[in-house]
Amino acid sequence: MKTSISIACTITSCILLSSCSVKTQLDEMHDSTVGMSHTTAEMSETTKDLAILTEGMSYTTDELNEMTAALLPLARTGGTAEIRNARVESMNNPIYKLNIEHKILHAGIYWQGFEFQAWSNTVVDDEFTKNNFYADAVEEFCLTLDSNFSAAGIDVKDLSKINPATKKGAELNILAFAVSAHKVLMYQDYLARHIPTFKKVSFLDIIKNALLKEKAYSNGEILESELERFEHLTLRNAKKLKYFLHVRYNMLTTIALARINGLDQAGLAVQARYLLKSWNAKLYKKTRAEKEEIVEYLEMANVTKDFMTSLGEVTVVNKNINKILRNMKVNTNSSKYCKKQCVDNKRKIKLLAKSMLN
Fold first, then answer.
1. Which end of the chain is more exposed for a tag (fewer CB within 10 A), N or C?
2. What is the pTM of this model?
Protein backbone atom coordinates (compact mmCIF):
# COMPACT_ATOMS: atom_id res chain seq x y z
CA MET A 1 0.00 0.00 0.00
CA LYS A 2 2.78 2.37 0.96
CA THR A 3 4.53 1.51 -2.25
CA SER A 4 1.46 2.39 -4.30
CA ILE A 5 1.09 5.69 -2.53
CA SER A 6 4.79 6.44 -3.10
CA ILE A 7 4.51 5.71 -6.80
CA ALA A 8 1.40 7.87 -7.09
CA CYS A 9 3.13 10.76 -5.37
CA THR A 10 6.12 10.40 -7.62
CA ILE A 11 3.93 10.43 -10.73
CA THR A 12 2.02 13.43 -9.42
CA SER A 13 5.24 15.27 -8.70
CA CYS A 14 6.53 14.53 -12.18
CA ILE A 15 3.30 15.74 -13.71
CA LEU A 16 3.45 18.94 -11.66
CA LEU A 17 7.10 19.49 -12.50
CA SER A 18 6.38 18.77 -16.13
CA SER A 19 3.49 21.20 -16.12
CA CYS A 20 5.69 23.83 -14.52
CA SER A 21 8.36 23.20 -17.13
CA VAL A 22 5.87 23.51 -19.99
CA LYS A 23 4.40 26.63 -18.44
CA THR A 24 7.84 28.10 -18.10
CA GLN A 25 8.62 27.31 -21.73
CA LEU A 26 5.27 28.77 -22.81
CA ASP A 27 5.93 31.86 -20.75
CA GLU A 28 9.37 32.17 -22.28
CA MET A 29 7.92 31.70 -25.77
CA HIS A 30 5.33 34.33 -25.01
CA ASP A 31 7.99 36.69 -23.71
CA SER A 32 10.07 36.00 -26.82
CA THR A 33 7.09 36.60 -29.06
CA VAL A 34 6.33 39.86 -27.30
CA GLY A 35 9.98 40.76 -27.55
CA MET A 36 9.97 39.98 -31.26
CA SER A 37 6.84 42.05 -31.61
CA HIS A 38 8.58 44.96 -29.97
CA THR A 39 11.66 44.38 -32.12
CA THR A 40 9.52 44.24 -35.25
CA ALA A 41 7.87 47.49 -34.26
CA GLU A 42 11.28 49.03 -33.65
CA MET A 43 12.46 47.72 -37.01
CA SER A 44 9.41 49.25 -38.61
CA GLU A 45 10.21 52.58 -37.01
CA THR A 46 13.83 52.23 -38.11
CA THR A 47 12.68 51.47 -41.66
CA LYS A 48 10.56 54.59 -41.62
CA ASP A 49 13.54 56.56 -40.37
CA LEU A 50 15.66 55.09 -43.18
CA ALA A 51 13.00 55.98 -45.73
CA ILE A 52 12.99 59.55 -44.48
CA LEU A 53 16.79 59.60 -44.51
CA THR A 54 16.88 58.16 -48.05
CA GLU A 55 14.39 60.75 -49.19
CA GLY A 56 16.64 63.39 -47.73
CA MET A 57 19.60 61.84 -49.54
CA SER A 58 17.60 61.96 -52.77
CA TYR A 59 17.15 65.66 -52.42
CA THR A 60 20.84 66.01 -51.62
CA THR A 61 21.76 64.06 -54.79
CA ASP A 62 19.53 66.29 -56.89
CA GLU A 63 21.17 69.34 -55.36
CA LEU A 64 24.62 67.87 -56.05
CA ASN A 65 23.63 67.24 -59.68
CA GLU A 66 22.55 70.86 -60.00
CA MET A 67 25.79 72.06 -58.44
CA THR A 68 27.84 69.75 -60.67
CA ALA A 69 25.91 70.90 -63.73
CA ALA A 70 26.77 74.47 -62.82
CA LEU A 71 30.42 73.93 -61.85
CA LEU A 72 31.55 71.24 -64.32
CA PRO A 73 31.38 73.43 -67.46
CA LEU A 74 33.22 76.22 -65.65
CA ALA A 75 36.02 73.95 -64.43
CA ARG A 76 36.23 72.14 -67.75
CA THR A 77 36.21 75.34 -69.78
CA GLY A 78 38.97 76.88 -67.70
CA GLY A 79 41.26 73.85 -68.02
CA THR A 80 40.66 73.19 -71.69
CA ALA A 81 40.99 76.85 -72.65
CA GLU A 82 44.43 76.90 -71.01
CA ILE A 83 45.47 73.86 -73.05
CA ARG A 84 44.40 75.46 -76.35
CA ASN A 85 45.93 78.85 -75.56
CA ALA A 86 49.24 77.24 -74.61
CA ARG A 87 49.38 75.26 -77.88
CA VAL A 88 48.55 78.24 -80.07
CA GLU A 89 51.14 80.32 -78.22
CA SER A 90 53.77 77.64 -78.82
CA MET A 91 52.87 77.40 -82.52
CA ASN A 92 53.14 81.16 -82.93
CA ASN A 93 56.32 81.68 -80.91
CA PRO A 94 59.26 82.19 -83.33
CA ILE A 95 61.74 81.31 -80.59
CA TYR A 96 60.75 77.64 -80.75
CA LYS A 97 61.30 77.42 -84.52
CA LEU A 98 58.86 74.53 -84.82
CA ASN A 99 58.87 72.45 -87.98
CA ILE A 100 55.67 71.03 -89.47
CA GLU A 101 55.88 67.77 -87.50
CA HIS A 102 56.08 69.61 -84.19
CA LYS A 103 53.28 71.97 -85.20
CA ILE A 104 51.06 69.00 -86.10
CA LEU A 105 51.73 67.58 -82.63
CA HIS A 106 50.74 70.86 -80.95
CA ALA A 107 47.69 71.22 -83.20
CA GLY A 108 46.53 67.70 -82.32
CA ILE A 109 46.63 68.55 -78.62
CA TYR A 110 44.81 71.83 -79.39
CA TRP A 111 41.93 69.92 -81.00
CA GLN A 112 41.71 67.53 -78.05
CA GLY A 113 41.49 70.52 -75.71
CA PHE A 114 38.01 71.62 -76.77
CA GLU A 115 35.17 71.26 -74.27
CA PHE A 116 33.08 69.00 -76.50
CA GLN A 117 35.89 66.43 -76.37
CA ALA A 118 35.25 66.01 -72.63
CA TRP A 119 31.45 65.87 -72.88
CA SER A 120 30.54 63.16 -70.38
CA ASN A 121 27.24 61.79 -71.73
CA THR A 122 25.79 61.92 -68.17
CA VAL A 123 22.80 63.55 -66.51
CA VAL A 124 24.74 66.81 -66.12
CA ASP A 125 25.82 66.86 -69.79
CA ASP A 126 22.79 66.95 -72.09
CA GLU A 127 22.45 67.49 -75.86
CA PHE A 128 21.94 71.22 -75.38
CA THR A 129 25.28 71.47 -73.58
CA LYS A 130 27.03 69.41 -76.26
CA ASN A 131 25.65 71.53 -79.12
CA ASN A 132 26.79 74.68 -77.35
CA PHE A 133 30.25 73.20 -76.97
CA TYR A 134 30.23 72.51 -80.72
CA ALA A 135 29.27 76.12 -81.39
CA ASP A 136 31.98 77.47 -79.10
CA ALA A 137 34.57 75.33 -80.90
CA VAL A 138 33.51 76.52 -84.37
CA GLU A 139 33.39 80.15 -83.28
CA GLU A 140 36.81 80.06 -81.62
CA PHE A 141 38.57 78.21 -84.42
CA CYS A 142 37.17 80.48 -87.13
CA LEU A 143 38.73 83.42 -85.28
CA THR A 144 42.03 81.49 -85.04
CA LEU A 145 41.78 80.73 -88.75
CA ASP A 146 41.13 84.39 -89.55
CA SER A 147 44.23 85.51 -87.69
CA ASN A 148 46.41 82.96 -89.50
CA PHE A 149 44.88 83.79 -92.90
CA SER A 150 45.57 87.45 -92.27
CA ALA A 151 49.17 86.83 -91.15
CA ALA A 152 49.84 84.61 -94.19
CA GLY A 153 48.04 86.89 -96.67
CA ILE A 154 45.75 84.08 -97.83
CA ASP A 155 42.82 84.60 -100.20
CA VAL A 156 40.34 81.76 -99.64
CA LYS A 157 39.01 82.17 -103.17
CA ASP A 158 42.34 81.17 -104.75
CA LEU A 159 42.92 77.44 -104.22
CA SER A 160 45.92 77.46 -106.56
CA LYS A 161 47.92 79.27 -103.89
CA ILE A 162 47.66 76.43 -101.37
CA ASN A 163 51.29 75.57 -100.69
CA PRO A 164 51.88 72.39 -98.66
CA ALA A 165 55.64 72.95 -98.96
CA THR A 166 55.60 76.35 -97.24
CA LYS A 167 57.99 77.27 -94.45
CA LYS A 168 56.07 80.36 -93.30
CA GLY A 169 54.86 80.24 -89.71
CA ALA A 170 51.19 81.19 -90.17
CA GLU A 171 50.79 78.94 -93.23
CA LEU A 172 52.43 76.07 -91.36
CA ASN A 173 49.90 76.59 -88.56
CA ILE A 174 47.02 76.22 -91.02
CA LEU A 175 48.57 73.07 -92.50
CA ALA A 176 49.06 71.58 -89.03
CA PHE A 177 45.49 72.37 -87.93
CA ALA A 178 44.11 70.90 -91.15
CA VAL A 179 46.03 67.62 -90.95
CA SER A 180 45.08 66.96 -87.31
CA ALA A 181 41.43 68.13 -87.27
CA HIS A 182 40.22 64.51 -86.95
CA LYS A 183 41.84 64.02 -83.54
CA VAL A 184 39.65 62.96 -80.62
CA LEU A 185 40.35 62.84 -76.90
CA MET A 186 41.04 59.37 -75.48
CA TYR A 187 38.08 59.87 -73.13
CA GLN A 188 35.79 59.55 -76.16
CA ASP A 189 37.38 56.18 -76.94
CA TYR A 190 36.58 55.11 -73.38
CA LEU A 191 32.93 56.18 -73.67
CA ALA A 192 32.59 54.49 -77.07
CA ARG A 193 33.82 51.19 -75.58
CA HIS A 194 31.39 51.30 -72.66
CA ILE A 195 28.31 52.98 -74.17
CA PRO A 196 27.10 51.29 -77.39
CA THR A 197 25.12 54.35 -78.52
CA PHE A 198 27.98 56.81 -78.01
CA LYS A 199 29.61 58.16 -81.18
CA LYS A 200 33.02 59.78 -81.21
CA VAL A 201 33.06 63.30 -82.64
CA SER A 202 36.00 65.38 -83.88
CA PHE A 203 36.06 69.01 -84.97
CA LEU A 204 36.27 67.70 -88.53
CA ASP A 205 33.01 65.79 -88.00
CA ILE A 206 31.29 68.89 -86.63
CA ILE A 207 31.99 71.11 -89.62
CA LYS A 208 31.42 68.35 -92.20
CA ASN A 209 27.99 67.50 -90.78
CA ALA A 210 27.04 71.18 -90.80
CA LEU A 211 28.35 71.81 -94.34
CA LEU A 212 26.16 68.96 -95.62
CA LYS A 213 23.14 71.16 -94.81
CA GLU A 214 24.41 74.15 -96.80
CA LYS A 215 22.60 73.35 -100.04
CA ALA A 216 19.25 72.66 -98.37
CA TYR A 217 19.60 75.81 -96.26
CA SER A 218 20.47 77.93 -99.32
CA ASN A 219 17.43 76.52 -101.17
CA GLY A 220 15.11 77.35 -98.30
CA GLU A 221 14.45 73.71 -97.51
CA ILE A 222 15.80 74.25 -93.99
CA LEU A 223 14.80 77.27 -91.90
CA GLU A 224 17.35 79.16 -89.83
CA SER A 225 15.35 78.24 -86.72
CA GLU A 226 15.90 74.56 -87.54
CA LEU A 227 19.67 74.90 -87.44
CA GLU A 228 21.71 74.39 -84.30
CA ARG A 229 23.95 77.32 -83.40
CA PHE A 230 27.10 75.44 -84.43
CA GLU A 231 25.54 74.68 -87.83
CA HIS A 232 24.65 78.31 -88.38
CA LEU A 233 28.18 79.40 -87.43
CA THR A 234 29.69 76.81 -89.78
CA LEU A 235 27.53 77.89 -92.71
CA ARG A 236 28.29 81.54 -92.01
CA ASN A 237 31.99 80.68 -92.29
CA ALA A 238 31.58 78.10 -95.06
CA LYS A 239 34.08 79.66 -97.51
CA LYS A 240 37.00 79.68 -95.10
CA LEU A 241 36.16 76.23 -93.73
CA LYS A 242 35.95 74.75 -97.22
CA TYR A 243 39.35 76.28 -97.98
CA PHE A 244 40.55 74.67 -94.75
CA LEU A 245 39.37 71.28 -96.05
CA HIS A 246 41.13 71.85 -99.39
CA VAL A 247 44.30 72.49 -97.39
CA ARG A 248 43.73 69.24 -95.49
CA TYR A 249 43.41 67.31 -98.75
CA ASN A 250 46.63 68.80 -100.11
CA MET A 251 48.59 68.33 -96.92
CA LEU A 252 47.58 64.69 -96.37
CA THR A 253 48.63 63.90 -99.95
CA THR A 254 51.94 65.68 -99.47
CA ILE A 255 52.74 63.92 -96.20
CA ALA A 256 52.03 60.53 -97.82
CA LEU A 257 54.48 61.32 -100.65
CA ALA A 258 57.03 62.65 -98.19
CA ARG A 259 56.80 59.39 -96.22
CA ILE A 260 57.40 57.41 -99.41
CA ASN A 261 60.53 59.41 -100.18
CA GLY A 262 61.82 59.87 -96.67
CA LEU A 263 61.73 63.68 -96.98
CA ASP A 264 59.92 66.42 -95.10
CA GLN A 265 56.99 68.15 -96.84
CA ALA A 266 59.08 71.19 -97.72
CA GLY A 267 61.97 69.23 -99.20
CA LEU A 268 59.71 67.04 -101.30
CA ALA A 269 58.17 69.74 -103.46
CA VAL A 270 61.50 71.19 -104.60
CA GLN A 271 63.18 67.95 -105.63
CA ALA A 272 63.75 68.23 -109.38
CA ARG A 273 64.25 64.48 -109.81
CA TYR A 274 60.64 63.89 -108.72
CA LEU A 275 59.21 66.85 -110.62
CA LEU A 276 60.83 66.41 -114.02
CA LYS A 277 60.89 62.65 -114.64
CA SER A 278 59.36 59.38 -113.54
CA TRP A 279 60.63 57.85 -110.33
CA ASN A 280 60.16 54.58 -108.52
CA ALA A 281 58.52 54.49 -105.12
CA LYS A 282 60.90 52.14 -103.34
CA LEU A 283 58.27 50.70 -101.05
CA TYR A 284 60.23 47.48 -100.60
CA LYS A 285 62.51 49.50 -98.34
CA LYS A 286 59.58 50.41 -96.10
CA THR A 287 58.42 48.30 -93.19
CA ARG A 288 54.84 47.07 -93.07
CA ALA A 289 54.01 49.71 -90.44
CA GLU A 290 55.47 52.47 -92.63
CA LYS A 291 53.49 51.32 -95.67
CA GLU A 292 50.30 51.18 -93.59
CA GLU A 293 50.91 54.75 -92.40
CA ILE A 294 51.25 55.89 -96.03
CA VAL A 295 47.98 54.11 -96.88
CA GLU A 296 46.29 55.79 -93.91
CA TYR A 297 47.29 59.28 -95.08
CA LEU A 298 46.19 58.57 -98.65
CA GLU A 299 42.87 57.15 -97.46
CA MET A 300 42.16 60.22 -95.34
CA ALA A 301 43.03 62.41 -98.32
CA ASN A 302 40.60 60.49 -100.51
CA VAL A 303 37.84 60.69 -97.90
CA THR A 304 38.33 64.46 -97.83
CA LYS A 305 38.26 64.64 -101.62
CA ASP A 306 35.05 62.58 -101.81
CA PHE A 307 33.40 64.80 -99.21
CA MET A 308 34.36 67.99 -101.05
CA THR A 309 33.04 66.49 -104.29
CA SER A 310 29.71 65.77 -102.54
CA LEU A 311 29.52 69.51 -101.76
CA GLY A 312 30.10 70.35 -105.42
CA GLU A 313 33.68 71.47 -104.80
CA VAL A 314 36.47 70.74 -107.28
CA THR A 315 39.54 69.55 -105.38
CA VAL A 316 42.91 70.61 -106.74
CA VAL A 317 46.28 69.26 -105.66
CA ASN A 318 49.18 71.71 -105.60
CA LYS A 319 50.73 71.71 -109.10
CA ASN A 320 54.16 70.48 -107.97
CA ILE A 321 52.66 67.73 -105.81
CA ASN A 322 50.46 66.73 -108.74
CA LYS A 323 53.53 66.41 -110.99
CA ILE A 324 55.29 64.24 -108.42
CA LEU A 325 52.20 62.03 -108.13
CA ARG A 326 51.94 61.69 -111.90
CA ASN A 327 55.63 60.73 -112.18
CA MET A 328 55.49 58.13 -109.41
CA LYS A 329 55.77 54.46 -110.39
CA VAL A 330 54.77 51.72 -107.97
CA ASN A 331 55.91 48.14 -108.50
CA THR A 332 53.15 45.87 -107.20
CA ASN A 333 54.88 42.55 -107.96
CA SER A 334 55.47 40.10 -105.15
CA SER A 335 58.88 38.81 -104.16
CA LYS A 336 60.50 36.83 -101.40
CA TYR A 337 60.75 40.11 -99.50
CA CYS A 338 57.21 41.24 -100.31
CA LYS A 339 54.40 38.80 -99.58
CA LYS A 340 50.61 39.20 -99.81
CA GLN A 341 50.14 41.96 -97.19
CA CYS A 342 53.05 43.91 -98.66
CA VAL A 343 51.65 43.60 -102.18
CA ASP A 344 48.17 44.63 -101.00
CA ASN A 345 49.55 47.77 -99.39
CA LYS A 346 51.54 48.68 -102.51
CA ARG A 347 48.45 48.24 -104.68
CA LYS A 348 46.43 50.44 -102.32
CA ILE A 349 49.09 53.13 -102.48
CA LYS A 350 49.16 52.98 -106.27
CA LEU A 351 45.37 53.18 -106.66
CA LEU A 352 44.89 55.87 -104.02
CA ALA A 353 47.66 58.03 -105.44
CA LYS A 354 46.27 57.69 -108.97
CA SER A 355 42.79 58.74 -107.81
CA MET A 356 44.14 62.06 -106.55
CA LEU A 357 45.62 63.30 -109.83
CA ASN A 358 44.18 66.59 -111.11
1. N
2. 0.77
